[in-house]
Amino acid sequence: MNTQIQPKGKGDGVVIKHVTKNLSGGRLSVAKLREMGFDPLEALVHQYRFLETQLQYYNDWRDNKIVPLTSTGKTKWYNEQAHLSIIDKMTTISDKLLRYKYGRVPETNIIEDKMRSPLVINLTKEGDTHIIGDYDDDTEYD
């Protein structure tokens, strides 16, 4: 049996050479997707359209416009969780598609117009006044 010892590198000890890291939205990533013939935006729209047809099917099932049958000929029970899951997936895809038209907007737009109060440090007792540059004659300073 012929075994080879891998030189230790970062991580789990496996050295991987000549692997390019494609940053999302970068020139290489876009070129790779184009080479593979994949458009993420188009795929999201196709998935949304498919979910629209599934939603219509579940709406019709819920409203008794259609009655799905099992393989034995009995009626299937309406699956509320699957119906709500489709709506949730459509919302997620809509949220992802929304940024292609409007861009990202910060969630919080709280702008404080209040003037902050200045930091006040009192060096004298309450009621006493200290005037800078006004020294008593009996005070000695080094």
Topology overview:
Blueprint: H1 27-36, H2 40-62, H3 80-102
Short description:
The protein has 142 residues and is mainly alpha-helical. The chain has helices at 27-36, 40-62, 80-102.
Low-confidence stretches: none
What average pLDDT do the residues reach? 79
Q: Could you state the oligomeric state of the chains shown?
A: single chain
Helical stretch tally: 3
Order of helices and strands: HHH
Helix content: 25-40%
Mind describing the biggest β-sheet? none
Name the structural class: mainly alpha
What does this structure look like?
The protein has helices at residues 27-36, 40-62, 80-102. It is an all-alpha fold and 142 residues long. The chain has a domain at 27-102. Helix 2 runs antiparallel to helix 3 (80-102). The radius of gyration is 35 Å and the shape is elongated. The chain starts with 26 loop residues before the first helix and ends in a 40-residue tail after the last helix. The model has no long low-confidence stretch (mean pLDDT 79).
